[in-house]
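QA checklist item 7 of 12: single-chain prediction sanity check.
[x] sequence parsed
[x] length recorded as 825
[x] structure emitted
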Amino acid sequence: MKEINYTVKDITKILKGEHTIVSPRAVVSHLIIDSRRVHQFEESMFIALVGDYRDGHQFVGDLYQKGVRNFLVSKPVKNVPDANVFVCEDTQVALQDLAQNKRERYSLPVIGITGSNGKTIVKEWLFQLLHKKFDIVRSPKSYNSQIGVPLSVWGIKPANNLALFEAGISQPNEMDKLERIIQPTVGIFTNIGLAHQENFESITQKVEEKIKLFKNADYVIFGSDNELVTHVFDIHVPRSKQIRWAKNKEADLVIQSVHKISGVTKISGEFKLKTVSLTIPFTDNASIENATHCWVYMLVNGFSNKEIQVQFDTLEPIAMRLEQKEGINGSVILNDSYNADITALEIALDDMMRLNKSQKTVILSDILQSGEPAEVLYEKVNNTLLHHKIHRFIGVGKEMFRNQNLFHFHSKFFFETTQQFLDEFHTFDFSNQAILVKGARKFKFEGITSKLALKSHQTELKIHLDALKHNLNYYRNKLSLGVKTMVMVKAYGYGAGGPEVARLLDNNGIDYLGVAYADEGVTIRKAGISIPIMVMNPAQEAFASMINFDLEPEIYSKEVFEEFNKTLETEGIFNASYKIHLKIDTGMNRLGFKPENVDEIIRLLKRNRHFKVASVFSHLVASDNSKFDDFTRSQIALFTQIATKIEKELGYSFIKHLANTGAIERFKNAQFDMVRLGIGLYGVAVDQKNQIQLQTVTSLHSLVVQVKEVKKGESIGYNRSFIAESDMKIAVIPIGYADGLDRRLSNGVGKVYISGVKRPIVGNICMDLIMVDVTGLNTLVNERVEIFGPHIPVYEIAKNAGTISYEILSGIPPRVKRVYIKEDS
């Protein structure tokens, strides 16, 4: 089949709306929704999708500069003079319309796959089994959403003679949209579970919604041992279009025997009055079910027993989110947070049974969004656990705690929160056993798996990126409509890591980043982050580097103005468009032009051939302190006066920004066009009454390397600064002032969180070690210790050390390993 090229003129016939067309014959081959993943600018069309915090329209200008000339938008865009612009009411619907049109132009067989679990596995296994015979197009990864499906279908090429697309829904009326895009000729229904049940009235309704994918398919493959599923199929799908497999004799493939031997499963059955058999290299029930769907498809399409077995012999497992790790004390951990429903639990338990461990522990959170009454749900969970012969059960969550009487185990424990369990972690023996850790994402079971995993002794700074995002949104919700956000990532992102934090901010639609020095900005640029960056302390020797990496300087004096002007001349930049940020000193008496010097800088700006003022800003002195509110108001008034004057004299508008974290919280009239968010992003509120609204972003942890007895009268540490007044026990922890732990916290001033309580540091803090009083505690070697975090907030550490949170956070050196924890969404 010949390549189908979509011209701009073709697209105007598909999409409804008012379009501005410059090149009707231009070809559109690629649809893109992420401006950071554009590699082919020619023949690409950018689709500006609008989300809660990210509006694709804000990237149109950048993509235009890079060479994109086709845009699908839902609101007017400016300054794209020679571009083709398609304006539609809803860009997501328009994307789906385009994909539907593409699908209708091809007549290849299409397998549509849906269900609660196993969609991606079945799709990838079918690809492994069939790719030698067919040229296959398939959904990348788990692209099964309202956006993922049309992008997958757009990938169809003339050479393809088979397509594999999966479809997922979370609420009624979504599958109709996906069906019109995929238009499957063959359907596979993997199974049904309780995930996303909260949006459906019943399991029956969810099955009815899902099988809408198959309303025009030639036939549908499904396992008919599930009576509910079979009942729904019989109502909505003619029996002639059903291909059933089951143990009952009414199925098309009758499963007669299943034998698990030495890591393989041998299945025997009857298909169309012929004896068939298959051996697969897996023994868990989930893999058997997924493989059987694939087997039936191959039987229906005329593959011989021999052909099928040859292909199944090479079948490889598909990595999902079930992780097996070596654990402490000879244990093995299965970390599974992929799908928190009872079906997924059964699948994980099947995997657990394969482990060569006689003792088995399950740590399970509340099962969310099941749609079932708690007493019914947790009775099912209990029966499933008993069936798999679990020895110990640990339940976490308020629902689990309330319904603990439904669990009939000799060894069972319940906690309302993850942290409560972590506080008691040291009381459990996790030796030489299999441990399944399965929790809904909101319970943040990473802390549990971290404690269970085998690791070398080390100090770690954990950065919780989901907490950082929470804090970002907390401050964003305080902003007036249209106010931009600059986030400060100076000092290595306040110790959290500049590039990593910047990447998250970029993904969440931040307008500007602020750094202290050029090398910080260069590091972020080298990490592939392209959003604007303001450099607050631009050194003369770094000017050339700033230009090379598109960094925008703060201009705070006549000398800096002239030196940067000379550098631009040397670099041959004469287009009067290089962006600078003008700093006005309204009372800090640090960097910036004093009010009496503003006229001079205006004259310089009017004469220059290189600069364009991107913003004018100043710095508030005490926005967090109500005692100085009158002074803060005077700063706001002065800044307003000066910025207005500069704008009038220059004859063009620019961004005006004054508010820091404290002002975002306390002075709405200081927001202007943009705010600068700093310490608040990292979980430290400048107004303590707002602290409860923020989440802890950074937490510093280490491990106990030795526990020892100290006799009365003995000294601890350098210079004998601490003398034991009675017999005591101490824990030695490998963290010291070389790791950023302030020496002012020595000798009882500072505390750590250990064995569930706060305990004082004794003796002087050493370069690499501290000693902590653990008298009366059952503290163990390898036990994790919190230096600061949820139990000891960083502002508490700062107060004890006689400093501020900024110094504590930014003082953690690179030798301390950063661990980034992110919820996969």
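[x] summary fact logged: The chain has 26 helices and 41 strands.
[ ] second reviewer sign-off
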